[in-house]
Amino acid sequence: MASYTIHPLAVGFNETDQGIMTYQRFYGKRILLPIYSFAIKGGDRKILVDTGLEDFMVPRDLEERMGFPVMEFEEALGTVGWKPQDIDLIIHTHLHNDHCENDCLCENAEVYVQKAELEFFRNPHPIDHRYYSDLLDGVDLRIVEGDTAVIEGIDVLFTPGHTPGTQSVMIETGRGKAVIVGGCCNAQNFPSGGGVICPGVHTDAIDAYESMKRVREIADILIPLHEIEIGKNKVIPG
Fold first, then answer.
1. How far is residue 78's CA from residue 55's CA, in Å, rounded to a whole number?
2. Could you tell me if residue 237 is inside a domain?
3. 69-124 pLDDT per residue, tens
4. 15 pairs with which residues across the strands?
5. E strands along the chain, which residues?
6. Domain residues for 67?
7. What is the tally of structural domains in the chain?
8. What H or E segment, with its residue span, contains residue 118?
9. In what order do the strands lie in the sheet with 30-41?
10. How far is CA 20 from CA 16, 125, 193, in A?
11. Are the beta carbons of 50 and 226 closer than 8 angstroms?
12. 165 domain residue, yes or no
């Protein structure tokens, strides 16, 4: 069985309210929200989960506040010895702009998206303004439907709710199944005493809750998509 390591690369950030992550919970607490591209190493293909933001401003004190640097995409890839043109495969958790703005730089990559997500991307509801119609121009798309094995040791799990076609990425590691959780969430969505909290941003709250619950039951290692502590790890599992 193939075994991989996961390298979180912070390629953007936001500052927001915790309630954006946790539906009807914890409003009024300001948090830093890292935006990651995850480099997956261990096989003969160079794989990313999401590609992050293209343009952003970095305050002078951001690294001190976050505990790790936030870099532009090409600089971040350089920390794992890769260049954009080296990337063979990109798996998208969903197609909000903050997860796919650097696809265009990865000119040789196959890009995996859920069918339901691509359909919504092409005809989004006005309630969700984060689908930029030109982000997939020229991209070599691979459309999957439902749970799918992408390559040996890496599967996507259909986990809708945050968006209609959100998917999580399950990766075999030396310490079990790591799951990059597709819905926009942080550690607060997975309370230490058990259970889950629905993402604060969703197109279907019940689907989002059930997707979080499913992922928690499957994962040996949970990787919430925007958890700040994840960025302090150069490699998962450490």
1. 18
2. no
3. 999 999 999 999 999 999 999 999 999 999 999 999 999 999 999 999 999 999 99
4. 32
5. 5-17, 30-41, 47-49, 89-91, 110-114, 140-144, 148-151, 154-158, 167-173, 176-181, 221-224
6. 5-232
7. 1
8. helix 115-122
9. 5-17, 30-41, 47-49, 89-91, 110-114, 140-144
10. 7, 19, 21
11. no
12. yes
CATH of the domain at 115: 3.60.15.10
Decide: 157 and 164 in contact? Cβ < 8 Å. Answer: no
The answer to the question of residue 238 being in a domain is no
* Cα–Cα distance, 200 to 205 (Å, whole number): 8
In the 8-state DSSP scheme, what is residue 43?
A: S
Is the model's pLDDT at 2 over the cut of 90?
A: no
Q: Tell me how far CA of residue 187 lies from CA of 102, 128, 163, 225, in angstroms.
A: 26, 24, 19, 9
Q: How many Å apart are CA 163 and CA 183, to the nearest integer?
A: 8
Full-model pTM:
0.97
Query: Residues 87, 49, 65, 229: is their CA dihedral positive or negative?
Result: negative
Select from 2, 6, 3, 68 the least CA-distant residue to 238.
6
pLDDT tens-digit readout, 15-49? 999 999 999 999 999 999 999 999 999 999 999 99
Q: What is the mean pLDDT of the chain?
A: 96
d(CA 220, CA 177): 5
Domain for residue 158, yes or no? yes
Percent of the chain at pLDDT > 90 equals: 96
User: Do the beta carbons of residue 102 and residue 37 sit within 8 Å?
Assistant: yes
The token pair that represents 28 in the structure block: 């009024």
pLDDT band at 152, cuts 50/70/90?
very high
Eight-state DSSP code of residue 206: H
